[in-house]
Amino acid sequence: MRCLPSDKLRALLINPWIHDFSALNLWSAPLGLLKVAEFLSQFDCKISYIDCLDTIKPKSYGTGKYRRQPIQKPLVLRQIPRKFCRYGITIEEFQFRLKSIMPVDIILVTSIMTYWYTGVAETIDHIKKIYGDVPVILGGIYATLCPDHANMYSGADLIYEGSIETRSERSKSNGLEAVIRNFGLRLTNITDKKAYYKLGLINWQFTPLLTASGCIFSCTYCASRLLNKDFIRKTPDEVFNEIEEFYKLGIRDFAFYDDALLTDSEDHLKPILKKVIQKGLPVRFHAPNGIHVRFIDNELAMLMKASGFKTLRLSLETVSPARQKLTGSKVKTDEFVNAVTLLKKSGFTKNEFGVYLMYGLPGQSLDEVKEGVKFLKSLHVNINLTEFSPIPNTKMWNELLAKGIISKDIDLLLTNNSVYYYLYSGYDLKELEKLKLEVKAYNSS
Ligand code: SF4
Hints:
This protein has 17 helices and 19 strands. By secondary structure, it is an alpha/beta fold. The protein has two domains: about 10-180, Cobalamin-binding domain (Rossmann fold, 3-Layer(aba) Sandwich); about 205-445, Aldolase class I (TIM Barrel, Alpha-Beta Barrel), CATH 3.20.20.70. Helix 2 (about 90-100) crosses helix 3, helix 9 packs parallel to helix 10 (about 270-280) and helix 10 packs across helix 11 (about 300-305). It is globular, with a radius of gyration of 22 Å. The chain starts with 8 loop residues before the first strand and ends with a helix. The mean pLDDT is about 95. It binds iron/sulfur cluster (SF4). Iron/sulfur cluster binds near residues 217 and 222. Iron/sulfur cluster binds near residues 219 and 328.
């Protein structure tokens, strides 16, 4: 057993750099990693935290731009005519922060996009140069979706698949506690868990809210089901208490991370929002993940407006009925029109809600995207064009493999949303650029 001399485990948690062509912080926070901190808080454990993305130039409602430093473009991306950058703190700053925390017994790194794996690998490389043989565990979305790839490329000593909550609850022998003990480290249980936001790790500008994990749908391009097999919700009281706790800490902006926030709203979101209204909390809510328009009714639209929703993203993705069905049937155009009508009636303005419209889906023509733009303009709603990017092991990924469009050993860098459409959509890229400029001008009109 290690952890001498006090037997207190010294754990360092790290949110790694992003390598990409562009990156904005639209209410992004490493919630999974913070849940790891919450889990460790029940043990005799000193928890330190480094956020490599801790460089936000603030914009509105807690969002912001990351600082960036151009880096050498990997060979495989050489055809992409854009700057490739490391987003976050500088190397010197990261090294300084690492050294100032020494010594530690274990390091836990999280990960998000699978195509950001080089950012993870660079982060771990710097950790290893300073911390030598201190074990590094890599968890998060990339580690869960691509454990073999992460094993091969990340430099971590152990890949931790799954979320801290589900894995530790399902099997104690397989949970994080057992994993840490297997490195010969001691964990002494001393107290109950402390909520992550009470651990003083982050200077909150906004807070993430996850009222439920998982999704009731199963869209062919989405990894939600791969990451969370079950749909598990907190009770409305639990969610409201969390909101109130954050409010007392001075937080006013709340970003919902749910994949299916509006599901069964009679017993979930409606009671939460009613309580917020009844208590008169002057908060601002943001729903950057596309919400399911089919669940919006008159009462819900009114409650969302009255409780302080400021940012809403609606999922439409395509106006083609065939593609809506083919990709998972989460939305139909008439349901969408109904939702827009109700939201407008309840007072939401054009700038308070935008609509996700995808381009570059396999088999999707640019004309189909143009048709979607024309349709949304006719409804006077803002348009958020989003690039399709294939996520490993989703149904659509497997279809692309089966059709020979991608190969199983494709470099994940090529699945970046800024890259995939450029190389694989077959679009006239000048036409696409024209469409993007048209949408930009329309949104700001
Ligand atoms: S509804 Fe959204 S979160 Fe759910 S599976 Fe479809 S894309 Fe994913």
